[in-house]
Amino acid sequence: MKRRSVNPPRAEALYDRLHFSQATRAGDMIWVSGQVGVDTTSMTPADGMDAQARLAFEGVRTVLEAAGASLDDIVELTTFHTDLRGDMPEFSRVKDEYINGPYPSWTAVGVTQLALSELLVEIRAVAVAGSGADSRTGAHVHTDY
């Protein structure tokens, strides 16, 4: 199984300058690098948790789509927060707008800092392309063992 780097057009400069991919795909598995709440036009962090979380989830969506998957294909979510307890209610509201059931595994980690001092959250994900919805109906498939 070959692996391939996934870098949407806006991310090619980061790949060239910092030497990392926005995602790596091997077979149907996709590992998405941490996405942050930075406006891609101005390259500045958004103001507040709500805005940063939305931009970060949009970044995850963009990378997954470039890799041939969707937010519904996420099987594991890891989030890094500079104020884990203080920002969790607001972050969770935004997360629930982007992530549908059946919900993936999720680990939230409190950290002392992220790449820029203004950043509040970073989101990384693991996805399995095609795993999130029934291809015939678009409905979520629930399996009880």
Topology:
Layout: E1 3-6, H1 12-18, E2 23-26, E3 29-36, E4 38-39, E5 44-45, H2 49-66, E6 74-81, H3 84-98, E7 105-110, E8 121-128
Helix pairs in contact: 2-3
Structure notes:
The protein is an alpha+beta fold. The strands form two sheets. It has a six-stranded mixed sheet. The chain has a two-stranded antiparallel ribbon with strand order 4-5. 28% of the residues lie in helices and 29% in strands. The protein is built from three helices and eight strands. Helix 2 crosses helix 3.
Radius of gyration: 15 Å
**H-E order:** EHEEEEHEHEE
N- to C-terminal separation?
29 Å
Percent range for β-strand residues: 25-35%
Structural class comes to alpha+beta
Lateral strand order in the biggest sheet? 1-2-3-8-6-7
How many beta strands in the DSSP annotation? 8
Helix segment count? 3
Pick out the low-confidence regions. Answer: 135-145
Characterize the biggest β-sheet. 6 strands, mixed
Shape: globular
Look at the structure and give the mean pLDDT: 89
Helix percentage: 25-40%
